[in-house]
Amino acid sequence: MSDSVATITGEDGKSAELPLLRGTHGPVVADVRGLRKETGLFTYDPGFASTASCKSSITYIDGAEGILLYRGYPIEQLAEHSSYLEVCYLLMYGELPTPAQMTSFEDIITNHTMVHENIRSFLNGFRYDAHPMAMMVGTVGAMSSFYHDSTDINNPEHREISAQRLIAKMPTLAAYCYNHHTGRPFLYPDNSLGYVANFTRMMFGVPAEEYKPDPTVVAALELIMLLHADHEQNASTSTVRLTGSSGANPFASIAAGIASLWGPAHGGANESVINMLDAILYSGETIEQTIARAKDKNDPFRLMGFGHRVYKNFDPRAKLIQKMCHDLLQQLGGDQPLFELAMELEKATLADEYFVERKLYPNVDFYSGIILRALDIPMNMFTVMFAMSRTVGWISHWMEMHEDPEFRIGRPQQVYTGAARRDYPTNT
Ligand code: ACO
């Protein structure tokens, strides 16, 4: 993995030789671990755009080529042949399951779908209009108080049980947060249903009637969840790793990830896309006017759902979801004016020099918002759906970190720019 070296010389003339690391794919990396010790220098990289914080074998992204691999498998192939739960197994354990392993994994996840009754009481303590993400942050963190039997982070079995519990209980918690928010009764999970259908039943079902999952809705959600299952070292995953690096328990670590995901620059973007499309429709603005505003440097408006920090090509997830968006809206007869506007915007930007030059392509949020709206998922649940899908990615990274012999507590440095040392005034 390591070959030649780069050399850096500090102010006092002391040099450090930095070994170059090569992963399976991706750019060559200068290993700066010895830099401070050997030269007294350290590196400055706000936003970590040039910094690898860990080695990971879970997910690979090539933003220039528009490639996303989970454990080496292209996202397009997984979307076509796999299921969300199979992808959970793959992300957690590194290999696709055999049929027997898959059956056993499904049994384990299914048997952990219920939450402690006191969690329902806990949810009832939230204000009637609490945002479902606020409830998710609080409730997932609170789960640590229910599972003292399995929070020894140094025990691999405990780590695995916690991971399985989190994946299994997240749809139940997500649906309960929604039920509390809307005043609907809580439904217990129905273990005769699959993972996604169980979630839609707990969310949309009522105790007075039998619930029949809609296969179109289930298939659409399954794909959205699979596409959002992991995305390497993004803000929320890095937050989970950093939180967990201090030895925090998995529930507390995942709660920190949910808090990070909540921000509009991360998981909240698909909600912003719908708000933007609604506002354009409502105002009667033309596509030309909208694009002109997005290009105007004196106007803070940006086209929501366009551009990505990593993808400087079409986001492969956006390509897959775009097709599904077309198919689904045809079947459901969903929000056509909104979708037509989205398609016109996509076409116009792909032909516009400003967007082409800057490599601003529609991202996954551009389409996922439209699909979730067509499926009657309320807007304040969009980020909760993302959190539910990403839990497996977060917990897989958390497990990988604990198995990594190079793992240390995360503790970045800083460039201090405050007042120089001075004395407290004593004679005034
Ligand atoms: N609309 C108009 N112009 C844009 C947009 C946009 N959506 N995104 C970037 N630009 C322009 C910038 O003004 C800048 O132009 P300049 O070079 O003339 O100054 C150039 O493109 C580069 O933009 P940066 O902000 O430097 O790109 P960065 O990689 O830092 O930002 C981001 C990426 C935050 C995603 C940005 O493209 C954006 O704000 N997009 C809209 C919000 C969005 O869709 N977020 C979801 C991201 S996907 C996810 O989190 C799952």
Briefly, what is this?
The chain is mainly alpha-helical.
How would you describe the overall organization of this protein?
This protein has 428 residues and is mainly alpha-helical. The chain is built from 18 helices and 6 strands. The chain is 52% helix and 6% strand. The strands form 2 sheets. It has a 3-stranded antiparallel sheet with strand order 1-2-3. Strands 4-5-6 form a 3-stranded antiparallel sheet. The structure holds acetyl coenzyme *A (ACO). Acetyl coenzyme *A binds next to helix 17.
Largest pleated sheet? 3 strands, antiparallel
Radius of gyration equals 23 Å
Biggest sheet: strands side by side, in what order? 1-2-3
Helix content: 40-55%
Order of helices and strands: EEEHEEEHHHHHHHHHHHHHHHHH
Question: What oligomeric state do the depicted chains represent?
Answer: single chain
Overall 3D form:
globular
By secondary-structure content and strand pairing, the structural class works out as: mainly alpha
Q: Mean pLDDT across all residues, rounded?
A: 92
Question: Which ions and ligands are bound to the chains?
Answer: acetyl coenzyme *A
- The first-to-last residue Cα distance is 63 Å
Number of strands: 6
**Proportion of β residues?**
5-15%
Number of helices: 18
Enumerate the spans where pLDDT stays under 50 for 5 or more consecutive residues: none
